[in-house]
Write a structure and sequence with these properties.
Blueprint: H1 9-12, H2 25-28, H3 33-40, E1 46-49, H4 56-67, E2 71-75, H5 81-94, E3 98-102, H6 109-121, E4 125-130, H7 134-137, H8 140-143, E5 147-150, H9 156-169, E6 179-180, H10 184-190, H11 194-206, E7 211-212, H12 214-224, H13 233-247, H14 251-263, H15 268-283, H16 289-304, H17 309-321, H18 328-343, H19 358-362, H20 401-414
Parallel strand pairs: 1-4, 1-5, 2-3, 3-4, 6-7
Helix pairs in contact: 5-6, 9-11, 10-11, 10-12, 11-12, 13-14, 14-17, 15-16, 15-17, 16-17
């Protein structure tokens, strides 16, 4: 049995107004910055950052429809500098236009640079969509000219809402007498991706299922869903398995899940970036060389690409998995940030303040500061934390050979002050 329409369910259910967008109320709700700008007709160039299937393209379409201005759309996968310049020339004749670029993180520096002048002059208002952190993937000059809006993954409540609305409102589904008994399998398999959720629902119904249960969904999914979808739930599950294998010191598991990502066509820089983060978050000072190797890996694979970069990725992954582990640096910054949130902007102790002017010196800025290199072993005990946080042990060295040495060093200097 096949549904009558050739238009996918996710496309048929695409919202037509900002009020219909689900799960992004923090940027689309009344009084939000983006909605206010849209109501005033003065939207800035922007980057929409969020996981797949949360409404980035939909929001771009609604913005353009609301503004009633000429609209151009390019995909960073298939377009280059030539296509960008052609759009800019057309926009100059039209006086004003919106250019939507999907997957803008895939544009290289020269392609992004081609946009700069037009964005700066207002010839085009750029809307870029990306699943990757724009701080890494969009060059600084272009990013500084754009407002970044972060779209959130859809939670269970919103995903159930999408399913119910599709069954109740879609003209084709309304004729199928669909009974929604369970939603867990649909939600788990979609991984927070609204588009994937609706298309999976349609696949299940196309197979002849009208009584939606977890068992029925799982059965259809096993038959028809690809093994690796780098833009969906499998992507996040496999990345999670990769990270957890390295954290668990299993190089075999790590290299297997690495192979799954490579065979699925995953971006080499994405994999390398995950290992770069892991090197500090999960290894840290237990083996500082891990960060150096991960950083070198990122640089190397960015230059080389597939297929050769698979060897470099494998070397780094197996090294990280086989390394001593410590999350002490991760825990330290988490504790320090929590202290900042709890205590606010505590004053810098006077002896640690900079005193570049005579007036500041008269106010005792820098007074009584002791230059550590003048002390024995380049150390003089003095207080470096604000008064309310004195004796707060943010960094607690891990129980590994390298950090045991650090613990001994700190204990000798601070005489057990921080409980080392």
């Amino acid at each position: 049995m096949f549904l009558e329409s050739q238009i996918p369910l996710a496309e048929r259910m695409r919202p037509n107004s900002i009020d219909d967008i689900v799960g992004q109320e923090h940027i689309t709700g009344k009084g939000s910055m983006l909605r206010t700008a849209l109501e005033n007709g003065t939207i800035p160039s922007m980057i929409l950052w969020g996981p797949p299937g949360v409404g980035k393209t939909t929001l771009a379409n609604i913005i353009t429809q609301t503004l009633k201005v000429p609209y151009f759309q390019l995909s960073a996968i298939s377009s280059g500098v030539k296509e960008v310049r052609e759009v800019i020339e057309q926009a100059k004749e039209l006086k004003s236009a919106v250019l939507f670029i999907d997957e803008i993180h895939r544009f290289n520096k020269s392609q992004q640079d081609a946009l700069l002048g037009a964005v700066e002059k207002g010839t085009i208002r750029l809307i870029g969509a990306t699943t990757e952190n724009p701080s890494f993937e969009v060059n600084a000059a272009l990013l500084s000219r754009c407002q970044v809006y972060v779209l959130k993954a859809l939670d269970k409540e919103k995903l159930v809402q999408l399913i119910q609305e599709a069954i109740q409102k879609d003209e084709i589904l309304k004729t199928k007498n669909i009974q929604l008994q369970e939603t867990e399998a649909l939600i788990n398999l979609s991984g927070g991706d609204g588009r994937k959720l609706l298309n999976l629902l349609e696949i299940v119904i196309q197979s002849g299922v009208t009584n939606i249960t977890d068992e029925a969904v799982q059965k259809v999914a096993q038959q028809k869903i690809a093994l690796y979808d780098k833009s969906g739930e499998q992507h996040y599950d496999i990345v999670s398995a990769f990270i957890k294998s390295m954290r668990g010191s299993d190089p075999n598991g790590a290299v297997y899940w690495l192979a799954r990502m490579i065979e699925g066509g995953e971006d080499v820089k994405f994999i390398a970036r995950r290992m770069l983060i892991f090197a500090s978050e999960d290894i840290g000072n237990a083996n500082p060389n891990a960060l150096l190797l991960a950083n070198a890996t990122f640089d190397a694979v960015a230059k080389i690409g597939y297929p050769e970069s698979r060897i470099i990725l494998s070397q780094c992954a197996t090294y990280l998995a086989s390394s001593p582990k410590s999350n002490a640096a991760y825990e330290a910054i988490a504790k320090a940030q929590k202290a900042v949130a709890q205590h606010g902007d505590l004053s810098v102790p006077l002896h640690l303040r900079n005193a570049p002017t005579k007036m500041m010196k008269q106010m005792d800025y820098g007074k009584d500061y002791q230059y550590s290199h003048l002390g024995e072993n380049n150390f003089i005990e003095q207080e470096y934390l604000p008064t309310p946080l004195v004796n707060s042990p943010f960094y607690v060295p891990g129980n590994n050979a390298r950090e045991k040495e650090i613990r001994k060093f700190l204990n000798e200097r601070w005489k057990g002050k921080y409980g080392y």
